[in-house]
Specification:
Antibiotic biosynthesis monooxygenase; disordered N terminus; alpha+beta; five-stranded antiparallel beta sheet; monooxygenase; 17% strand; 5 strands; 6 helices; 199 residues
Length: 199
């Protein structure tokens, strides 16, 4: 597979993203004071629209700081399908609906692939933590669920063919880690993962 060239097409960073790898993109929006309720209603509609697009693997919204800054975390199966959504007329129509309500902070748009997407901080340009911290955090997230799978699931699959038994573990563990455990664990350990003094 070839690596994508460094670029900012449509404001999306595609630095070193492999063809066919899942991509997580964070979009940051600044909402005008007093228009938060309208913006939140809009997020429901555009999220439903995005989920219907091929390759979409989830849309999450976060708000931090003073409540006027919102972050959309988009997960896509690959950068080409993500680009198709970003360039789509459907998305453009949704954006036109909030031209006087909110503005995307284009300078803070970022995309990551691989393990780093579990540790990205929405709306920032902070680098991913050191690999040893990512490995330790992933272990803390994966270990309890590994025990549960071994205890609750594995005993019931002893008669299955080996390829099928081997598939059970990643099919159960990876979605749980990606969508439930790691986003929460990385927020819980945020001060340790991203110390202010950079240690």
């Amino acid at each position: 597979m070839t690596r994508a060239a460094r670029g900012t097409r449509n404001g999306m960073s595609t630095t070193e993203v492999r063809r066919g790898e899942p991509v997580t993109t964070v979009l940051t929006w600044r909402v005008r004071p007093g228009r938060e309720r309208e913006f939140e209603e809009w997020t429901h509609g555009i999220s439903r629209c995005a989920r219907r697009f091929p390759g979409n693997e989830g849309v999450s919204w976060l708000t931090v700081e003073d409540g006027h800054r919102y972050h959309a975390v988009l997960r896509w199966s690959d950068r080409h399908r993500l680009a198709a959504w970003l360039e789509s007329e459907e998305r453009a129509r949704w954006h036109r609906r909030i031209e006087d309500i909110a503005t995307e902070v284009g300078s803070e748009r970022q995309s990551t692939s691989g393990m780093e997407s579990w540790f990205s901080l929405p709306g920032t340009t902070v680098q991913a933590p050191p690999r040893w911290k990512m490995v330790l955090t992933t272990f803390l997230g994966a270990y309890p669920f590994t025990l549960l799978v071994q205890w609750l699931v594995t005993p019931h699959t002893t008669g299955w063919p080996l390829p099928l038994r081997a598939a059970v573990f990643p099919l159960v563990l990876l979605p749980v880690l990606t969508y439930l455990v790691m986003p929460r664990l990385s927020r819980l350990l945020r001060l340790w993962l991203y110390p202010r003094d950079g240690r």
